[in-house]
Hints:
The protein is α+β, with helices and mostly antiparallel strands. Helix content is 35%, strand content 15%. The protein is built from ten helices and seven strands. It has helices spanning 22-30, 35-42, 49-54, 61-73, 95-98, 101-111, 130-136, 185-193, 198-203, 214-219; strands spanning 77-81, 89-93, 144-150, 153-159, 169-171, 179-182, 208-210. The strands form two sheets. A five-stranded mixed β-sheet has the order 5-4-3-6-7. It has a two-stranded antiparallel ribbon with strand order 1-2. The longest helix has 13 residues, at 61-73.
Amino acid sequence: MPRQQQPAARPARRRSYDQFCAAARALDSVGDRWTLLIVRELLAGPRRYTDLHADLPGVSTDVLASRLRDMEQGGLAVRRRLPPPASAAVYELTEHGRGLLPVLTALAGWGAPALTERRPTDAVRAHWFALPLLRALDGLTHAGVVEVRLDEGEFHFRTGVDAAAGDAYGYGPAAHPDACVVLDAELCLALGRGDLTLAQAVGEGRAQVLGEGPLAAELRGGRPAGP
């Protein structure tokens, strides 16, 4: 007898709330655990899989790979290979994915009051403080690159640009910053909560802004640079 042909396997159907609601549709794409945190990492620019895994403590390799596939299928991220000499595969957000920046910024603001103290099991990375600081410094009029120095490390971000057109912030020190802000994580969170402004923190001696240009002056609240 001829061998009966097996039916072709159907592609896996992504979970859906099956609700005609904008919030439900959004959660169909980003409601799975870890997805928004992967977006948080990719907002800082293209990243290799190994880098993502290192900066997402607690995620399994299977779950990370699955979420990245879902993000590619949903148009949130793409995978590409860097040209030589790097020749490494990286993931980066699409314009659609970068549109989640205000969502994550608002979510960070909503969750900031829960960060009363760091638990012994809490991991921390310097660039995780970018979201509350971006929220605190929203509305700066001068464009440029700001380097932020914390005890936990450095990151940098750009002001006066459309975040949907490029990286909102980046890992590590900036090559040519227009200003540098030195502060601690506790103050960074206080700024994100709106407890005080950066200019007030500079005036109280709790933060330092380095630089001579107009962006540095604006960050200091119009104060001249110190000696």
